[in-house]
Specification:
The chain has 118 residues and is mostly helical. The protein is built from 6 helices and no strands. Helix content is 56%, strand content 0%. Keywords: Electron transport, Heme, Iron, Metal-binding, Signal, Transport.
């Protein structure tokens, strides 16, 4: 990730933290979002800004960014329980190895990747 993208991502994370009332303890997990996504094998199907098997995280963020905390919960639930039909024919399998806390942290990080409002 380039320096400009990193700075932009950190700024978006800060705004997202304020927008969804994330505590300082959970804020640390947001900065570790890419590492958590790799550790939980999310990157096997998703990439940050390009399509793989599933949609890129930035596309997910752009679709759900306006929803605030309910969207964090919605995405966390989708991570843990899977889904189908929202992004095409390939279903997302459930990820029961991801804890509720990890799913919430991943969802908040993904939403932090949304493009700035125009």
């Amino acid at each position: 990730m380039s320096g400009k993208k990193l700075v932009a991502s950190l700024a978006i994370i800060a705004v997202s933290i304020a927008a969804v009332n994330i505590t300082p303890a959970r804020a640390q997990t947001l900065t570790d979002g890419p590492q958590l996504a790799r550790a939980k094998i999310c990157m096997g199907c998703h990439q940050v800004d390009s399509r793989r098997v599933g949609p890129p995280f930035v596309a997910v963020a752009d679709r759900y960014k306006a929803g605030g905390q309910p969207m964090v919960e919605y995405l966390a639930n989708s991570i843990r329980h899977g889904g189908r039909g929202r992004w095409g024919a390939v279903p997302m399998p459930a990820q029961p190895q991801v804890t509720e806390e990890e799913a919430t942290a991943l969802a908040a990080w993904i939403l932090s990747l949304a493009s700035p409002a125009k």
